Amino acid sequence: MPEQTPVSRTRLWQVIAASSVGTMIEWYDFYIFGSLAVIIAPLFYPSGNETFALIAYLSTFAVGFVVRPFGALFFGRIGDVVGRKYAFLVTLVIMGGATALVGVLPTFATIGYAAPIALLLIRVAQGFALGGEYGGAAVYVAEHVPDNKRGFYTSFIQITATLGLFLSLVVIFVVQNMLGAEAFRAWGWRVPFLISILLVGVSLYIRMKMKESPILEHIKSQGMTSTKPLKEAFTEWHNLKRVLISLFGATAGQGVVWYTGQFYALFYLTTILKVHATSANCIVAVALLLGMPLFVLFGSLSDRIGRKGLMMTGCLLAAVCYIPIYQAMQWVAGNGVVTVVSQTNPITGAKSLTPQAMVDGSLVNAPEVLPYQGLAELLSTSTAWGFVALIFVQLIFVAMVYGPIAAYLVEAFPARIRYTALSLPYHIGNGIFGGLLPLIGLTVVASTGNIYSGLYYPIAIASITFVIGMLFLKETHKHKIWDEVQH
Question: Which region among 236-245, 466-475, 476-485 has the lowest average model confidence (pLDDT)?
Answer without folding.
Answer: 476-485
